[in-house]
Amino acid sequence: MTQIEADLIGGPDQHVIDDQLDAFIQKSLAGADLDGKDVVLVIPDGTRSCPLPLVLGLLHRHLVDKVAKLTAVIALGTHSYMEPDEIARMVGGDPEETYPGMAVVNHEWADPDMLVNVGHIPGERISELSEGRLDVGANILINRHVVESDVAIVVGPVFPHEVVGISGGNKYFIPGVASQEFIDMTHWVGALITSYEIIGTTGITPVRAMINEGAALIPTQRLALCLVVESGSGLIEAAAWGTAEDSWAKAAAIAAETHVKYVEKPFTRVLSIMAERYEDIWTAAKGFYKLEPAVADGGEVIIYAPHVTEVSETHHEIHEVGYHCRDYFVKQWDKFKDVHWGVLAHSTHLRGKGTYNAETGEEKLRVKVTLATQIPREVCESINLGYLDPAEVDIAAFEAAPDTFVVPNAGEVLYRVR
Q1: Domain 7-258 of CATH type 3.40.50.11440
Q2: The pTM is what?
Q3: Do residues 268 and 89 make contact, with C-beta atoms less than 8 angstroms apart?
Q4: What is the pLDDT of residues 152-161, one digit of tens each?
Q5: Domain at 261-417, CATH from 3.30.70.100, 3.40.1190.20, 3.40.190.10, 3.90.226.30
Q6: Which residues of 280-297 are buried (b: 16+ CB within 10 A; e: fewer)?
């Protein structure tokens, strides 16, 4: 196997122009010994801001005539499968016409036939990796296209992330193209740490340690083109190439500079304006995750997404458990242990820090979370969230209010108090 040296172009607050990126990708691929190989590109889904048509176009041009087979697998985790028209919009056109010779497919996480068991991590090792938070063993099931390929190349952006610290790298394999069981386990460990503590953390967090351990079991050679994408503009600030671990480390260090903003005092009220790429609250909740550390005790985050009509397209259990702090579940574990842990994790991530008294049944939550969406008031209240009629949201008035911070294109940049 060819030794791949990590390489980097661009840097904090720089812009990598198309010709530079083209030359970088051509050079990187040339040094990877891909001729005649079965190559899979593991790409983001529609919830990630990324100039994917540009990057995918360059990769396709430099690979399609050299490799034996080329497939792009959309790293959905357990997000909804993307429809053909959604895929076409994301990749810049009908894949058959735009990328001849390359198939673009969903990660079919709900189909057992599309998953391959690549190994097992015993409970004792999970305990070590999670620093004692979990001691349950897990089989690692990965998308068949990835496992049966010679080389899998992660292609996508890195951002501060509520579960793992900084996204990207091996996270495109787990949860990106993995089975729900191990996805749930890693997300629950993140929830036990809390999003407030882990989000934006560089280095190998306990969750990333679990992900790296699982990814190492994949027999395929794992490479990555990790991108730092300027929020709002979609311009590439930096690109790193190398192993899934080394390229991620280079890009994550830059993302920690460019995608974390520090404020002098906490906000009282935040209006997070969510882009339409977040189609439900399961994904639009990033508008809370990225703001929670910068909101004062007793403050409020309003998720303004008037296009959103449902809480989750795929995880309907959230309606049964609602949104609560970590301790609400931990202190009633017998009641909730059989619910998908990924659902419980999402619940705690959106409800944020708080306490729960098991004797009195009283839950105290640090920050109020309000939805300004098409989800009706009665549904919001039934899942323990506030409601605001989106028709009553006057963005200019919010911007003029002295106690309010308005975040356009929320969900990618993390805010913290200095």
Answers
A1: yes
A2: 0.92
A3: no
A4: 999 999 999 9
A5: 3.90.226.30
A6: bbbbbbbbbbbbbbbbee
